[in-house]
């Protein structure tokens, strides 16, 4: 179960002090040189412009270093590194570090999003119009400027955990967000707007190297998101810092509160997408009730199209000959890499919640384009679909649930099964099943529960470079003949 602790994702070898002083040994003494100070620590709430300060806080956002050409000295390059820091429930602010290229790039490697840092000898300044337009919104009207006399170290004090907790609290009102269904319904009317989203991670695609029209090399990472109203929504990441952070996100296990993400209508793909901008702050596994509900939903979610695609691409069950106990299957799931595995197990179904009162085991789809629909509002939200409100057909109804299966050695929990498999087990279609009384649904459930089956499965292994867990999917269930079962156990002995 998700504990919502970001520091679990931070490698221990990064928990060390790093400062401008360390890197400046190889550069000019005036390049962000460190000067010792006995100035006491301040808090963001009490800061006043025009003073220097020492401050401790957790990093909410960090941008990649960039070059700034001075108008006064157009041939002199200066580099800056922007980040956002928080030291309490209500107070957070932007900061900028200035210096020459080697020093700023070195500093960029010294701390990451989600780490607690201590800033020394930073100049407090009033936020500018640039901050308001291109930097994240903050509760403080001030900003920090860290230059030649500045110093930043990783903070390891006894109250470090308290600061880490602030990284799991959204910086905007946590109920002020759009559902993905809202984005799709409003469509082009939201084009170019910055909105807040509460979403779960579906998939983090591989990082791509992109060459822009101007010849600049950039990285791009496409992240697929979802919530309870929409099965797929695209988030584009272009900043190296956000991309590195996203590589630790887990499918169906990471929940995000995204502040000020830019939504645009992609004319080429003809649907809405989102792009993280310089104003965007992403809170990982936020400590709010709505996020916990979404986490529970996400943990049990998988696209029905993905399930059925896998089933359509499996070998004939008669060609699957390897038999496993449930414990052996669980052991295979722990092996870090290898090929996909097909097999079967003589097991009984120990969890089959097909009569749940929340009706999450049923999914509605547009019959024309197979886009997911809401049971309460059966209107297709796919902008590419030819269906309209006037000619809308009855939605296609499919089973969407997980099962658990067990034997005397162990239990496999929450395996996704496709619609055809469930209909075969119950001997009734999903559309017919939803019309039954609750008592009749329970009767059909108990005709399957704890009955012995020959359960065919597939272990889908992830790439070794991918931090996603392996998946197991039930492909086929066949009632077991008693004589076959006796023969198997006699042979096993």
From TrEMBL:
- PANTHER family in the record, alphabetically? CELL DIVISION CONTROL PROTEIN 24 OB DOMAIN-CONTAINING PROTEIN-RELATED (PTHR21166)
Annotated ranges, domain Replication protein A OB: 193-282
Question: Cross-referenced InterPro entries, in alphabetical order?
Answer: MEIOB, NA-bd_OB-fold, OB_MEIOB_N, REPA_OB_2
Going by the entry's taxonomy, the superkingdom of the source organism is recorded as Eukaryota
Which family does the record assign?
Belongs to the MEIOB family.
Q: Which UniProt keywords apply?
A: DNA-binding, Meiosis
Q: Name it.
A: Meiosis-specific with OB domain-containing protein-like
Ranges for the MEIOB-like N-terminal domain? 42-172
Set out the biological process GO terms recorded for this chain's protein: resolution of meiotic recombination intermediates
Q: Its Gene Ontology molecular function terms?
A: single-stranded DNA 3'-5' DNA exonuclease activity; single-stranded DNA binding
Q: Does the keyword DNA-binding apply?
A: yes
Residues annotated as transmembrane: none
Q: What is the originating organism of this protein? A: Octopus sinensis
The answer on whether this UniProt entry bears the keyword Transmembrane helix reads no
């Amino acid at each position: 179960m998700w504990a919502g602790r970001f520091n679990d994702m931070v490698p221990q070898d990064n928990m060390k002090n790093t400062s401008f002083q360390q890197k400046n040994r190889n550069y000019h003494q005036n390049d962000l040189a460190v000067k010792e100070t006995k100035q006491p620590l301040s808090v963001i709430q009490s800061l006043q412009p025009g003073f220097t300060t020492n401050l401790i806080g957790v990093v909410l956002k960090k941008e990649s270093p960039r070059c700034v050409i001075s108008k006064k000295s157009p041939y002199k390059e200066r580099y800056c590194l922007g980040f956002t820091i928080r030291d309490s429930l209500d107070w957070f602010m932007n900061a900028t570090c200035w210096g020459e290229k080697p020093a700023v790039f070195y500093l960029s490697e010294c701390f990451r999003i989600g780490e607690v840092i201590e800033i020394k000898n930073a100049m407090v300044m009033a936020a500018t119009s640039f901050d308001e337009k291109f930097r994240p919104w903050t509760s403080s009207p001030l900003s920090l400027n860290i230059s030649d006399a500045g110093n930043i170290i990783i903070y390891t004090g006894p109250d470090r955990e308290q600061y880490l907790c602030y990284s799991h609290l959204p910086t905007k009102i946590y109920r002020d967000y759009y559902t993905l269904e809202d984005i799709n319904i409003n469509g082009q009317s939201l084009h170019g707007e910055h909105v807040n989203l509460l979403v779960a991670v579906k998939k983090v695609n591989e990082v791509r190297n992109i060459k822009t029209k101007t010849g600049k090399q950039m990285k791009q990472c496409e992240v697929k998101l979802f919530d309870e109203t929409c099965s797929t929504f695209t988030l584009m990441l272009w900043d190296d810092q956000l991309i590195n952070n996203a590589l630790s996100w887990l499918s169906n296990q990471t929940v995000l509160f995204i502040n000020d993400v830019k939504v645009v209508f992609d004319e080429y793909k003809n649907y809405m997408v989102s792009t993280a901008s310089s104003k965007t702050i992403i809170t990982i596994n936020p400590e709010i009730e709505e996020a916990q509900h979404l986490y529970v939903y996400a943990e049990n979610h998988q696209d029905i199209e993905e399930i059925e695609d896998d089933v359509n691409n499996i070998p004939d069950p008669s060609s699957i000959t390897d038999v496993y106990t449930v414990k052996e299957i669980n052991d295979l799931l722990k092996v870090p890499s290898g090929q996909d595995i097909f097999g079967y197990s003589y097991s009984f179904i120990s969890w089959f919640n097909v009569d749940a009162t929340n009706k999450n085991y049923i999914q509605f789809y547009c019959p024309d384009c197979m886009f997911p629909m809401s049971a309460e509002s059966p209107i297709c939200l796919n902008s590419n679909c030819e269906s309209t409100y006037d000619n809308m057909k009855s939605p296609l109804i499919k089973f969407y649930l997980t099962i658990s299966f067990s034997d005397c050695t162990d239990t496999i929990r929450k395996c996704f099964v496709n619609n055809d498999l469930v209909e075969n087990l119950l001997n009734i279609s999903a559309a017919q099943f939803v019309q039954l009384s609750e008592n009749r649904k329970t009767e059909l459930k108990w005709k399957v529960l704890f009955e012995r089956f020959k359960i065919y499965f597939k272990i889908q292994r992830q790439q070794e470079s991918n931090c996603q867990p392996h998946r197991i999917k039930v492909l086929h269930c066949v009632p077991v003949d008693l004589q076959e079962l006796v023969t198997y156990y006699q042979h096993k002995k």
